[in-house]
């Protein structure tokens, strides 16, 4: 489905309810599979969470998790310690290009049996569930935090817990803290000090009710809309001031772009104060919140300002090579972008070409990041249904704000 987004000059302010965080949900789904008395509220309706639940319910040998990175990584660890179970874990073409070796090596250190079905280091993988023979593991921490969260999630279900030593510069740290916080919420003890994570065993039945906060990465697109519209006053639920999600750094980042965030009764209200000259800090390091990089770059492009983002090394192995994809699509619209392995510089643009068709590369965040540009120009978004990976109601919510789309 390709969508046309006509150019609009102002939005209809309203209140939106965003679905639960897919990151929190997918952690809690694994924990509920290990501790069935756990209950979860505000579960994400994302494809990635639906696929995770389906995989956990499945008794088939072949489990296909399509594009869902967290499902791929968390289920690798989950099935690896499920004694007596044989699973072939596979995914989409892109998933078969997303590395898994660091996690597989870590699980092998524990005595788990995992082999590659096709290319060494990549899914699909065949997993023969085994009981670990040690509780100590070391792994490289600068490629994806999901490998670390995967180990943490299964740790307490093992007789001696796990002591995980992280090597190298740790990336996407808030996601590791999110895992630790959710473990604590369900009654599992653990620490993350220096480069060592220790999770205590807990073999008792845990029965806790956990309410998932709504998804801050999804909220980022409304920050972008607010920054590009003069009259923005958008309310979104349900959020907490003390979030586990690193992408809540949006509050501070978008202050530089004139957006004020107010919390009230678990909602946030975004207002465009227009009081600041829009300008990001000279260098913005996004190694702690990689998923909002696309949103920020496109907002700056729409505002006609430049930006310099660093800490983007993980973007190349996500749903697509997001650095290349951003450069290609922004340059189609008349902008100029310079990328390296881990940085992106956007030059200030004084015009945006109209009626350009944005390719989305099977990446939900490409579709959602470019949509706010309707406040500047008319554009097309290709394969617009990709948004369902994290935010199936995205286009419906955009329509509620008066951004009408036609196919
Ligand atoms: O643990 C998680 O829920 C996630 C961790 C991040 O991945 P990396 O640690 O690979 O950067 C993030 O990009 C992804 O969308 C979700
Ligand atoms: C990178 C993402 O997801 P995952 O790695 O879980 O596929 C994302 O949602 O932006």
UniProtKB/TrEMBL annotation:
Span of domain Enolpyruvate transferase: 56-398
Protein EC: 2.5.1.19
Compartment annotation: Cytoplasm
Pfam families: EPSP_synthase (PF00275)
Ligand binding (3-phosphoshikimate): 22-23, 27, 144-146, 172, 291, 318
Residues the entry annotates as binding phosphoenolpyruvate: 22, 69, 98, 146, 322, 365, 389
MF-aspect GO terms: 3-phosphoshikimate 1-carboxyvinyltransferase activity
GO CC terms, sorted: cytoplasm
Pathway, per record: Metabolic intermediate biosynthesis; chorismate biosynthesis; chorismate from D-erythrose 4-phosphate and phosphoenolpyruvate: step 6/7
Swiss-Prot/TrEMBL keywords: Amino-acid biosynthesis, Aromatic amino acid biosynthesis, Cytoplasm, Transferase
Gene Ontology biological process: amino acid biosynthetic process; aromatic amino acid family biosynthetic process; chorismate biosynthetic process
Catalytic machinery residues: 291 (proton acceptor)
InterPro entries (UniProt xref): Enolpyruvate_Tfrase_dom (IPR001986), Enolpyruvate_Tfrase_sf (IPR036968), EPSP_synthase (IPR006264), EPSP_synthase_CS (IPR023193), RNA3'P_cycl/enolpyr_Trfase_a/b (IPR013792)
Catalytic activity reported: 3-phosphoshikimate + phosphoenolpyruvate = 5-O-(1-carboxyvinyl)-3-phosphoshikimate + phosphate
HAMAP family: EPSP_synth
Family: Belongs to the EPSP synthase family.
Function: Catalyzes the transfer of the enolpyruvyl moiety of phosphoenolpyruvate (PEP) to the 5-hydroxyl of shikimate-3-phosphate (S3P) to produce enolpyruvyl shikimate-3-phosphate and inorganic phosphate.
Oligomeric and partner information: Monomer.
UniProt name for this protein: 3-phosphoshikimate 1-carboxyvinyltransferase
Lineage, opening ranks: Bacteria, Pseudomonadati, Bacteroidota, Flavobacteriia, Flavobacteriales
This protein's encoding gene: aroA
């Amino acid at each position: 489905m390709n969508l046309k987004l006509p150019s609009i000059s102002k939005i209809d302010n309203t209140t939106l309810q965003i679905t639960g965080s897919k990151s929190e949900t997918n952690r809690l789904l694994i924990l509920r599979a290990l501790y069935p008395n756990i209950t979860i509220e505000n579960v994400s309706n994302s494809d990635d969470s639906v696929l995770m639940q389906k995989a956990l319910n499945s008794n088939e040998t072949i489990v296909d998790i399509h594009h869902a990175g967290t499902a791929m990584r968390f289920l690798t660890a989950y099935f690896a310690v499920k004694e007596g179970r044989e699973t072939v874990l596979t995914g989409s073409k892109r998933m078969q290009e997303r590395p898994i070796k660091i996690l597989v090596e870590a699980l092998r250190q524990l005595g788990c049996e995992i082999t590659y079905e096709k290319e060494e280091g990549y899914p699909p993988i065949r997993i023969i569930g085994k009981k670990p023979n040690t509780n100590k593991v070391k792994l490289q921490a600068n490629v994806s935090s999901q490998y670390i969260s995967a180990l943490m999630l299964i740790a307490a279900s093992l007789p001696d817990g796990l002591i995980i030593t992280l090597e190298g510069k740790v990336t996407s740290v808030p996601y590791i803290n999110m895992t630790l916080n959710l473990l604590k919420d369900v009654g599992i003890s653990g620490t993350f000090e220096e480069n060592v994570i220790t999770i205590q065993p807990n073999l008792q039945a845990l029965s806790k009710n956990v309410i998932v906060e709504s998804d801050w990465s999804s909220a980022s697109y409304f920050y972008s809309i607010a920054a590009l519209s003069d009259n923005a006053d958008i309310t979104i639920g349900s959020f907490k001031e003390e979030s586990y999600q690193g992408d809540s750094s949006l509050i501070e980042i978008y202050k530089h772009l004139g957006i004020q965030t107010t919390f009230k009764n678990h909602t946030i209200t975004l207002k465009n104060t227009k009081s600041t000259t829009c300008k990001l800090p000279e260098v913005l390091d996004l190694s702690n919140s990689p998923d909002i990089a696309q949103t920020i770059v496109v907002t700056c492009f729409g505002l006609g300002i430049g930006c310099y983002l660093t800490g983007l090394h993980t973007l190349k192995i996500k749903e697509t090579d997001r650095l290349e994809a951003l450069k290609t699509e922004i340059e189609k619209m008349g902008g100029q972008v310079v990328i390296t392995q881990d940085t992106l510089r956007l030059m200030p643009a004084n015009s945006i070409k109209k009626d350009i068709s944005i390719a989305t590369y099977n990446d939900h965040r490409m579709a959602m990041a470019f949509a706010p540009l309707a406040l500047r120009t008319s554009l097309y978004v290709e394969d617009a249904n990709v948004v369902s990976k994290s935010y199936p109601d995205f286009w419906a919510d955009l329509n509620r704000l008066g951004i009408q789309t036609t196919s």
